[in-house]
Each structure stands twice: as structure tokens, then as C-alpha cells.
Design goal:
The chain is α/β, with parallel strands linked by helices. The protein has a domain of 128 residues: Rossmann fold (3-Layer(aba) Sandwich). Helix content is 38%, strand content 19%.
Length: 258
């Protein structure tokens, strides 16, 4: 596949790159989305690459992987393949506790497969164990914030609440669709987080088009006020095909953090 990869990746305007700022991350970062197929895994990989570039030890956890057969590359495999370079690979841990084959919400897919999912309490213990050995733990959820991750109805938001209850610092990165209608989805997610006292670190727009239209460009301006949190960047569509060295080199131009 390498011969089909462009030598350089798409970048955003240089003003955005020049305005990058250090973002103080909590011990645990929950990455959620306003929906599916909006670039959440690629955004997770870009964030992972930036944190690794700081010299940090990073763990990436996918609590439940659905829609893949055994042996297929899962989301954490994609993150590792894009974010880890020979220099940083030893500082990256990836973990996928369970996988079910149908491309459905984890609780539905597990119920149909006759599989028992780990509980939110189980995931919280795993995260705390990872946090004891890593500087940052990044947890990529399934779909949106309130998608059920276990058979008891527990969600990524519940995981964040459980971790904060025991004193673990937690923040949320929301990956959103850049197109028309996204402001409502962002506002709903932000409101759900605020109701649970879960800090929203910021919003990342995934699958950013090469030629954005009026809706996309105005969304960029409106998101901070709608979300009550900064826009952390825009991930261009198609960058998941890049080689790791190109991906990690270009990632700082997509995110306004370093």
C-alpha cells in the first residue's frame, strides 16, 4: 500500500498551525463523537501522536470493538499504525478488552452474540491501572457519548463519572462532523457533559473537506460558543492512508495544540 500513499499529507492554513498552544491534559482523556464515521479514530491517532511527541508514555484503550472479525485491524491497531514511529512505539500501549463481530452498539452486538461485556466498573479499574503506568490514558468510545458500553446501560459518560468519583482527573475531546447540522449535535453533547460535570477540553472536526463550503466555514466560527469550549482542530479527510512518519509530521498542522 505504501506506493499509493502521497509523500506529504494535506495541511490546514499556516495561521492555525502557528497559533498552536500547549494543552494541559488530564490523566485520562475520553474521546467521543457526535456520531459514527466522522473520523474519531483518526482524531485519536493524531492526539496520540502529539502526546507521544511530548515524550509522554501513552495508553490508548478501546473499551469495546464492534463490527470486526478476529484478526481484523481494530481501532487501536489503526491508532498504533498511524501514531507510533520507531522512536515512540515503546512508549505507546494499546488495549482492546473485547470484540464482537456485528457493527452495532456494543450492548446490542454483545447481546446478539451471547457475549458478556465488561462493566463500566471493570473499565474504570483498567483505566486506573493504565494511568498508574502512563502519563496519559486516551479512551476512545464507540459512537457517541451515551452509547451503551455494557449490559447494564453504562456509557462513556458513566465511565468518566466513575473515574472522577475516585479522584482520577478526566477530560473529554468531542469529535464532530464538520457539515451542516453539527452545531446541534455538538450542543447536545456539551450539555450532557455539563450535566455530569465532565470537562469538555474542546472539539475536533473530523473528515474536514478539501474544499469546505459555507456551512463548514461558519461552523468553525460558531463552535466555541455552542460548545463552551475551544475548537482544537480539523482533521482533513483521507489522512488515515498516510505513512506513520508523514502522519505524525503533519498532525501538528491539523490540531491547534502541541
Amino acid at each position: 500500500m505504501s506506493e499509493q500513499v502521497p509523500p506529504t499529507g494535506p495541511t490546514l492554513d499556516t495561521d492555525a498551525a502557528d497559533d498552536r498552544r500547549e494543552l494541559a491534559l488530564p490523566s485520562v482523556v475520553l474521546v467521543t463523537g457526535t456520531g459514527t464515521e466522522i473520523g474519531k479514530t483518526i482524531a485519536t491517532a493524531a492526539l496520540t501522536a502529539l502526546v507521544l511527541a511530548r515524550g509522554s508514555r501513552v495508553a490508548v484503550l478501546k473499551p469495546a470493538q464492534t463490527g470486526l472479525a478476529p484478526g481484523d485491524a481494530g481501532d487501536v491497531d489503526v491508532v498504533r499504525s498511524l501514531a507510533a514511529t520507531p522512536e515512540t512505539a515503546a512508549r505507546l500501549t494499546t488495549l482492546e478488552p473485547i470484540r464482537v463481530p456485528e457493527p452495532l452498539a456494543p450492548d446490542v452486538a454483545a447481546r446478539r452474540a451471547g457475549v458478556e461485556l465488561p462493566t463500566i466498573a471493570d473499565h474504570a479499574r483498567t483505566v486506573r491501572s493504565l494511568a498508574a503506568e502512563h502519563d496519559t490514558v486516551i479512551v476512545e468510545g464507540a459512537g457517541g457519548l451515551l452509547v451503551r458500553l455494557d449490559g447494564r446501560g453504562g456509557t462513556l459518560a458513566d465511565l468518566g463519572t466513575a473515574l472522577r468519583y475516585v479522584g482520577t482527573s478526566v477530560g473529554v475531546v468531542l469529535v464532530a462532523d464538520p457539515h451542516l447540522g453539527t452545531l446541534n449535535s455538538i450542543a447536545l453533547s456539551a450539555e450532557a457533559l455539563a450535566a455530569r460535570s465532565l470537562p469538555l477540553l474542546g472539539v475536533v472536526l473530523g473528515t474536514w473537506p478539501e474544499d469546505p463550503g459555507l456551512a463548514e466555514t461558519t461552523n468553525v466560527e460558531e463552535i466555541p460558543s455552542v460548545a463552551g469550549a475551544p475548537l482544537l482542530g480539523r482533521i482533513p479527510t483521507g489522512v488515515g492512508t498516510l505513512e506513520p512518519q508523514t502522519f505524525t509530521t503533519q498532525a501538528p498542522t491539523w490540531l491547534t495544540i502541541r
